[in-house]
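User: Could you check the structure of this?
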Amino acid sequence: MSRAFVDVSAGGSRPVFVGLLLPGHDGDRRADWSNGELGIRASRSPLARARRPEAAGLTVAGRRRAPGLRREELAALAGISVDYLTRLEQGRATSPSSQVVEALARGLRLSDAERELLFRLAGRTAPGREVISSRIAPSVQRLLDRLQGTPVAVFDAMWNLVVCNAPYRALMGEQATRGIHRNAVWRNLVGPGNRSLQTPDETAEFEAGMVADLRLTASRYPADHELERLIAELRAQSPRFVELWDSAAVAAHREQARHKVVRHPAVGPITLDCDTLTVAGDDLRIMVYTAEPGTDDAERLALAVVLGTQELVE
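Assistant: Sure, the predicted C-alpha cells are below.
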C-alpha cells in the first residue's frame, strides 16, 4: 500500500519533499514528480519556490546550503509538532487528518491544484464547497504577512480559530488550535472566555450575535458534519446556547461592537478597535486589533505585544 509522507533531510536543511512511498520489488521507493508519478519534489516542481522560507513569510539571516524549509520551520508554519512531522516523513504516521493536511498546505502556501494533489497523496479528498473551509489562499496569507506587528486572528465560518500571529497571542493569551477548544462560540459559552471586558448587556449581545451568525453558517452548510457535531456539543453543554439557538433571533449589528476593552494581565485594560474582515470566497473572518496612534492605549498595546512575544520566545 502506498503511503503519503512529508520528507525533510535528516539535517533539517534540505528542501521539503511531499509525496508517496510506493511499494516495489526492491522495497519502498519515493514517487518522483519528474517521472510523472504522484509526488512533488521541491527541487523539480513549482513548489520549490513556494517552499522557500522567504515565500513562506519567514526571515532568513545569511545564506543556507539549501533553499528549502527546514523541518522545524514547516512544523511551526503548520502548527504541528516536529515529532509528528518526523513520523509523517518516515512513514510511521500514515493517516494524517484533513485538518493536518490543510495545515501543511497552508504552511507551504500551495495553489489550489497543489493542495488538491496533497490531499490525494494523503488518501483524502480536498473539502468541497459544501463544507466549511479553513483554507487560507496565498494572496490572503501575503496580506497577513504585512500585519505581522498587529494582533490578527483568522477564523472559519463556524468560528474555529484557523491561525493567529504572535502579537494576537501576546494580547489575548495562548490559543488552542486543535479540537473544540479552538472554537470561539464554545470558548465563550462553555470554556474560559477571553480577556475582553464587557458589561452584562454587552456580553448578552455578543453571545446572541455569535449564535445568530453560527445559525446562518448552518443554513449555508447543511452537509457539514463537523458543524453538526459542534452544534450538538454546544446544545449538550450550554443552556445559554440552547436558549439562543431555539429563539431563532437575528442579532442586529451595532457599531459599538467594533470597540473592545482587553484586560491584559501585565499592562492593564487596553481600549482597541476590533475590525472583522471577511474573505468572501473562502468564508473566513480576519479579526484585527488596533489602537488609535499617539494614545495611551497604543502605548499599552505596543508594550503588551513586546512583553508577550518575549514570553513566547522564552
